[in-house]
Write a structure and sequence with these properties.
Length: 485
């Protein structure tokens, strides 16, 4: 079984999505609907945990929300007025049921469930210390580290234990937790991963994106602030900020690709931002062409912006089928090659004899772009130009995005001209980092970037990377030992 989508293996996978609700009799059903809206953030597995005031109930499954949580039996097995859910890709920890979230544990203070979006960059270091102290891990997920830190904290109250645990972790996290007392939602001090809060009648809801509120009929109130912990219990909502204030560094790739276009981030429409990125791309990298063609579906808003700014007609030159399953058996290399057209096919009558400019959100390994360029040429395009709505992705992400190793990133191995030759395009250009910030409503002053995490483009990581740095040190020691031997 392999993917039928020729583009699936060449995208940055969208970390995870989380959703939680407190204060409604149909909590698990609301969470299931919210997770449907967040399915794009994780398509490997899903889970929901609920609480009825006495017992915690958990249902987790491999695959999509649909088929696992859209039936009466599933929802009926998750009673209660409070629930949280999770959709995931395996950014940290293997793809197995023991890593599917929410994770649940019985602590001395009662039940504790947690759904996590992000990545703890010192999880392995912490895990080694915890195991030496007698902790027994049931998963390979970095999220379980938080559970053990809470369980072993010497502070008295659960909230103090929770804060103590978070002060020991590095990296990125948005968390929705459930206890016998209520619900806790929080973001890391830099706000790298998103989290928003809203209301559904008298109920309080949390989600990775506002689009989940639209689906369940909730009203968006605000973003959970970086470093903020929101506690919902006994009908009251209160907030604490126990961490030292820092300049926020939310992930800029949410604007480029991860978030759904119909979501709102920091009061701004993702769709509008992506159109602005496309327009800025046209200003910086004009090209004479007959058609602007998006790479579906993520390239569409940027392509509209590029077309409007450049005056070149926008056309759907690549048609995507939405009725093909994610996988099927391909017995030979020849059939495997033909299978790429099951989901995407060139609009041959439109393209033949035309000079086209293709708009995509990013280039990762480059295999996608090569296939698209070949597809256009086979359809009779006279010229194929590629314009990318992000700067070159030269560095791996350690904050909850499934990025290939750096040696597999095309931009880490080649300059732009080398990349152009590799994908066989007539021209290739990326938006500049300055242009990207301008498009999202920020201006660079004196070469100081505004407050976003752009490490995948610049290598400027906003936190320590303890596990990664220790791993590099071990690799260097191993190489030194080999030379000594």
């Amino acid at each position: 079984m392999i993917t039928t989508n020729p583009f699936d293996d060449d995208k940055l996978r969208e970390e995870c999505g989380i959703f939680g609700v407190w204060g409604t009799d149909t909590a698990s059903a609301v969470v299931a609907l919210g997770l449907h809206a967040l399915q794009h953030r994780g398509q490997e597995a899903a889970g929901i945990t609920s609480f009825d005031g006495t017992e915690f109930y958990t249902l987790r499954a491999q695959g999509h929300v649909a088929g696992n949580f859209d039936n009466d039996n599933a929802i009926g097995s998750l009673p209660g007025f409070m629930a949280c859910g999770h959709v995931r890709y395996s950014t940290t920890g293997e793809a197995s049921m023991r890593n599917v979230q929410p994770l649940y544990a019985d602590l001395a203070s009662g039940g504790f469930a947690v759904a996590h979006n992000g990545n703890i960059s010192n999880a392995m270091t912490l895990k080694k210390e915890l195991v030496r102290g007698g902790a027994i891990f049931q998963s390979t997920s970095d999220t379980e580290t938080i559970v053990h830190l809470v369980a072993t904290s010497t502070y008295r109250t659960l909230l103090d234990k929770f804060v103590d645990a978070l002060k020991q972790v590095e990296g990125a996290y948005s968390l929705i937790c459930m206890t016998n007392e209520g619900m806790i939602a929080c973001r890391d001090p830099l706000g790298i991963r998103p989290l928003v809060m809203g209301r559904l009648g008298d109920a309080i809801v949390f989600a990775s994106e506002t689009v989940a509120f639209d689906v369940v009929g909730a009203t968006y109130e605000r973003s959970v602030e970086p470093g903020e912990i929101v506690i919902v219990a006994k009908g009251e909502v209160r907030s604490i900020k126990p961490f030292k204030p820092q300049s926020p560094r939310p992930c800029v790739f949410e604007h480029i690709y991860f978030a759904r276009p119909d979501s709102i981030t920091d009061g701004t429409s993702i769709y509008s931002v992506r159109k602005s990125i496309g327009a800025q791309l046209a200003v910086e990298n004009p090209v004479k062409a007959d058609l602007v063609i998006p790479v579906p579906d993520s390239g569409v808003p940027a392509a509209i912006g590029y077309a409007q700014q450049s005056g070149i007609p926008f056309e759907l030159g690549i048609i995507r089928s939405h009725y093909v399953g994610r996988t099927f058996i391909q017995p030979t290399d020849n059939i495997r090659h033909l299978g790429v057209k099951l989901k995407h096919n060139a609009n041959r009558a439109l393209i033949a004899g035309k000079s086209v400019v293709l708009i995509d959100d990013s280039i990762v390994r480059g295999t996608t772009s090569l296939k698209i360029v070949q597809m256009m040429r086979e359809a009779g395009a006279s010229e194929v130009h590629m314009r990318i709505a992000s700067p070159p992705t030269r560095h791996s992400c350690f904050y909850g995005v499934d990025t290939p190793e750096r040696e597999k990133l095309l931009a880490a191995q080649h300059d732009v001209e080398g990349m152009r030759e590799w994908i066989q395009a007539d021209s290739l250009a990326f938006i500049s980092i300055e242009g990207l910030y301008r498009a999202v409503g920020e201006e660079m002053r004196n070469d100081i970037r505004p407050q976003y995490c752009d490490a995948c483009f610049t290598g400027d990581y906003p936190t320590r990377l303890t596990d990664h740095d220790d791993s590099k040190d071990m690799d260097q020691l191993s190489l030194l030992a080999e030379r000594v031997v």
